[in-house]
Amino acid sequence: MQKAVAGTVQRAGEAVAGGAMATNKKVQNMKPETFDPSESDRITSDFGVLQHNTDVWLKASTGDKQGPALLEDNFAREKIMRFDHERIPERVVHARGSGAFGTFKLYESAEDVTSAGVLTDTSRTTPVFVRFSTVLGSRGSSDTVRDVRGFAVKLYTEEGNWDIVGNDIPVFFIQDAIKFPDVIHAGKPEPQTEIPQAQSAHNNFWDFQYMHKEATHMFMWAMSDRGIPRSFRMMQGFGVNTFTLINKEGVRSFVKFHWTPTIGVHSLVWDEALKISGQDPDYHRRDLYTAIENGVYPTWKFGIQICPESRADEFDFDILDATKIWPEEVFPVRYIGEMELNRNVDEFFPQIEQVAFCTAHIVPGIGFSDDPLLQGRNFSYFDTQISRLGVNFQELPVNRPVCPVMNHHRDGALRHRITKGQFNYWPNRGSVVPPGTISEGAYVDYPQKVVAMKQRLNSVKFSEHVNQAQLFWNSMAPHEKLHIIKALSFELSKCEDPIVYERLVERLAEISLELAQAVSDKVGAPKPEQESRPNHGKKSAALSQGHFAPEALGYQPTIASRMVAIIVGDGFNFAEYEAVKGALSAANAFCFTIGPRKSEIKSSGKSVKPDHHFESMRSTLFDSIYIPGGEHITTLIKQGRVLHWIREAFGHCKTIGASGDGVKIVKAAIGIEGMRFSESGDGEVVDCYGVVTSAGGKISVGNALKMAKG
Ligand code: HDE
């Protein structure tokens, strides 16, 4: 795994051993199964017998002539047999992912709405594990594809595990769980060819989108910049489904859960995402690991949107419909806690691959709602873990709670736990392990009154599907609208069947005529002449990514963990190089030196060994580039690859810094004198945080620049 060369490199978790990690209950809880090899350890068989040669199979051999391998070699057979069975089924969705451990701290009690300890006790630090994922791709697919991202959080509370199995987009494609197999079949590779991998750009996906008008709102989100995040650390997380909170008095409220990153919400641009897919398919995985490994811990604010039960019917949408957001103007987000990820896993498979989330994992003070998507999910997650991990999946180290687990469930494949005594049923004559009482904090189901007919029917308000798609479109900044047009134009161009892209363009005309016309032109569909539904003109500020700039949340913009490439050749100005690198590293930016070769690059008596050469990395993998002055410019300016580095970074709206003669190469590449903050060919206006240099070599770090067009 690539480590950043700058900043204080510390082994996350270990560095604070004796501190927070030593008291992290989940870290302690996994200790018995954690093997940390030492110099004195030697290879044994699985049944503990020390082995002396594990490289050559036992043979009937004379030494000068090869003889047959013998079946009696127990160790060789064990080694091969264990290897043969290393794979388990990958997740049926969200197969590709990565994760980390951390902590959750509450800073404001929500006792007015819930009795849950994790949401009322501000003295607690609750251990967490988070797994981020894409949805459609297989386990080995690329990180930067256009897709929804999973954002699944397991909170190991003192009252049991609470899982918020969310996404980076607050709504879903479908309203009813019974449609899940259809939407996933339509999105995954097509059955006759198993093509395309990890892509929604194909006939079946868009056919489904048209056939299910309820998907309209969600596909707008997926086609927006949310579909191509810059980093897992820069994504919002949403519980999506409507849950309930119940307070001590037994009063119930409806709730939506939010995670908001304190470094802001940032995305790639599509051209970058496409290229990174090939250049570094592990881009997001590596980014998360590297940041944590270097002590730049990602944090999210935790927020709740509350709707009192008495107000549930007041709105023009059903609050139990997962294709709808609760607009923040109507339901403000109340931020009450913060989550930090501060420890990478020790081993991928037993921790990230075997972690098992279930929406049904809730704790006292938290409940479900009648959201029909949630009800189906509550069944599906348990069920899928049984085929993926087996019935005793709850016992796996990463999954088991930090509080006691006691019951009369027994046996099943790979049961680990040994329970003493005679009783494995309740009630028993010895009163062994009875249920808890309410005063002991036992989970009590909310006594909800249900009067209904048994029918296959959703509520009337579930039938409106376009209002919030319009709200989303109207709320986008100009560059966000442009990106949606481009994304839809890309995706629909990959659909060969005219009925698919023509009908979808008709659907777009229900959202916005401007959108439909722009896309129709690109994809060759008939141009809609009038909007097929009037636009209500409403907006909601919190739907645009720009709304989540760190300043808006009370945080300073930061360059920490941002990737900076410093371009050098023989004869570069060492003093400038050192000054800029030092300033950036002190601010915890991750600096990489890139040169014509990895061997030493000389500069008036000094030299550096670059981390990469121009061909082994590309500008796409960095947030910013800096070119020091010096004689190297006369050579570099003639090299197409170096000019491409600068041009490409410019085209992707990246911060480009140069000092001294470095300015000349920037000018040669992009035709602009000195330091500029880029605007793309489309005239987009973006916010940049980063390195600011001037031709005079003045350097300031971490400035937030509002870019202006022109
Ligand atoms: Fe999932 N989903 N889902 N999902 N989902 C799974 O469970 C399912 C839905 C989400 O990192 C599966 O353990 C149904 C919405 C995440 O391990 C499976 C429905 C949201 C993850 C499953 C939904 C999600 C999953 C596959 C419709 C956002 C990855 C493997 C009713 C709130 C968890 C697994 C991880 C995984 C079923 C819809 C998020 C099959 C039936 C809505 C983040 O059980």
UniProtKB/TrEMBL annotation:
Gene3D superfamilies reported in the protein's UniProt record: 1.20.1370.20, 3.40.50.880, Catalase core domain
InterPro entries: Catalase (IPR018028), Catalase_AS (IPR024708), Catalase_clade2 (IPR024712), Catalase_clade2_helical (IPR043156), Catalase_core (IPR011614), Catalase_haem_BS (IPR002226), Catalase_immune_responsive (IPR010582), Catalase_large_C (IPR041399)
A GO biological-process term: response to oxidative stress
Active site, renumbered: 94, 167
Keyword Chloroplast: no
Record-annotated Catalase core domain positions: 44-434
EC numbers for this chain: 1.11.1.6
Cofactor requirements of the protein: heme
Alphabetic keyword roster: Heme, Hydrogen peroxide, Iron, Metal-binding, Oxidoreductase, Peroxidase
Domain of life, source organism: Eukaryota
Pfam families cross-referenced by the UniProt entry: Catalase, Catalase-rel, Catalase_C
Region feature (Disordered): 522-543
Transmembrane segments: none
Ligand binding (heme): 381
Reactions performed catalytically: 2 H2O2 = O2 + 2 H2O
GO CC, one annotated term: cytosol
Gene Ontology molecular function: catalase activity; heme binding; metal ion binding
Family indicated by similarity: Belongs to the catalase family.
Job of this protein: Occurs in almost all aerobically respiring organisms and serves to protect cells from the toxic effects of hydrogen peroxide. Catalyzes the degradation of hydrogen peroxide (H(2)O(2)) generated by peroxisomal oxidases to water and oxygen, thereby protecting cells from the toxic effects of hydrogen peroxide.
Name listed for the protein in its UniProt record: Catalase
